[in-house]
Amino acid sequence: MGMSEFDPRARSIRPWNVGTQVGLKRPLTQKQIWAIRFHLDRKQRFRDRALFDLAIDSKLRGCDLVELKIGDLVAGAEIRHRATIIQRKTKRPVQFEIAQDARASLLVWLELRGGSVEDFAFPSRVDHDRHLSTRQYARLVDEWVTAVGLRRKDYGTHSLRRTKASIIYKATGNLRAIQILLGHSKIENTVRYRGVDIEDALTLSEKIEI
Predict the structure, then answer these.
(1) Given CB 3.0 to 4.6 Å as the disulfide criterion, which of 16, 20, 51, 157 pairs with 62?
(2) 18 φ, ψ to 5°?
(3) Secondary structure (3-state) at 79
(4) Rg (CA), the chain
(5) Model confidence pLDDT, tens digit, residues 77-102
(6) What is the pLDDT of residues 24-68, one digit of tens each?
(7) Nearest residue to 109 (alpha-carbon basis) of 41, 195, 22, 187
């Protein structure tokens, strides 16, 4: 049962989202990606560099990213060019590519990390049998973006999920491809997630001469 706006008690209830930014977090630009990579390389944070690169390439939700196992990412002694996992949210498979930069940083990290194919690629520093928590992953993203002068409230883990998809969409305008890459079951979800608006539509239309 709801509470009437005229009930005096309603005035004392503090909304859950006071002081927070609600809505989609911004994707990173290519310049910002390289700024974060430079920062992590300079600090010799090999795990974080591998995690960041893989987050950009895989376009996975944080809960799926942190649960990746070494066996999901390697084939023999090499890092896979493509990998497939079952998404926790949708229970559907999604395939993703691992580009050259991500393969290189993953190779460095996994050689340092050691372990077997059944181990988590990014273990918790508290309990090595468990994976990095989504909360810790979110704290790392906050740290990365603020280190390069970005406002923490504008960016989050979904920024990394959205980044490559946003760049691909701007280059191609292909929403169906973005839907597949993000593992969305409905194109409507992709439209909302991508934040397609009238400016996007007009920009794409202006490129077509008839």
Answers:
(1) 157
(2) -65, 130
(3) strand
(4) 20
(5) 899 999 999 989 888 888 888 999 99
(6) 788 899 999 999 999 999 999 999 999 999 999 998 999 999 999
(7) 41
Count of beta carbons in the 10 Å neighbourhood of residue 111: 9
Residue identified by tokens 């790392």 is: 140
- C-alpha closest to that of 70 among 28, 112, 38: 112
Q: Return the SS3 of 94.
A: strand
Structural domains of the chain ordered from first start:
30-206 (1.10.443.10)
β-bridge mates for residue 78, sequence order: 75
| 85-93 own/partner pairs: CB under 8 Å, 24+ apart | 85/60, 87/60, 87/61, 87/183, 88/61, 88/63, 88/64, 89/61, 89/63, 89/64, 90/183, 90/185, 92/183, 92/185
pTM over 0.90: no
Rounded distance between C-alpha atoms, residue 155 and residue 206, angstroms: 30
β-bridge mates for residue 97, sequence order: 82
Q: How far is the C-alpha of 62 from the C-alpha of 160, rounded, in Å?
A: 9
Closest CA to 47 of 161, 158, 128: 128
CA–CA separation, 130 vs 126, rounded Å?
A: 8
Cα-based angle 70, 157, 136 (whole degrees, multiple of 5) = 65
Strands (E), 9-168: 74-75, 78-79, 82-86, 93-97
